[in-house]
Amino acid sequence: MLFAAYGAKQPQRPGRLTTESAVASARRQATETANRNAQITEVRRQARAAVQPQPGGTQPPNPRSPAPNPRGPAPTPRGPAANPRPTTGRPNTP
């Protein structure tokens, strides 16, 4: 209002959120996401094809299988465990 009184024009304010701009932004984001997902899918497909074993060749070990424990299984504890926080006046023995 003061702008009009002094004959100045009020500057336009950029970046207003409207329904149209929100819809356009959502569509743009959906398109970018779909393009990126398609690209990732294609690269994964190519990588799987490159890793497929050739006929007569050896198969690499499965990277998702756990390594064997060289020391054998962990020992099982015998008896009840000692209380790490003994109460006052009582010994810390099982």
Walkthrough of the structure:
The longest helix is centred in the middle third of the chain and has 33 residues, at 19-51. The chain contains two helices and no strands. The relative contact order is 0.05. By secondary structure, it is mainly α. The radius of gyration is 34 Å and the shape is flat. The model has no long low-confidence stretch (mean pLDDT 78). 39% of the residues lie in helices and 0% in strands.
List the helices and strands and how they pair.
Layout: H1 2-5, H2 19-51
Can you give keywords for this protein?
single chain; mainly alpha; flat; 94 residues
Described by strand count, sense and barrel closure, the largest sheet is: none
Shape: flat
Portion in helices: 25-40%
By DSSP, the count of extended strands is 0
Low-pLDDT windows of residues: none
What pattern of helices and strands is seen along the backbone?
HH
Strand content: under 5%
- Helix count, per DSSP? 2
Whole-number radius of gyration?
A: 34 Å
Based on secondary structure, the structural category is mainly alpha
Distance between the termini: 84 Å
Could you report the average pLDDT, rounded to the nearest whole number? 78
Concise summary:
The protein is mainly α and 94 residues long.
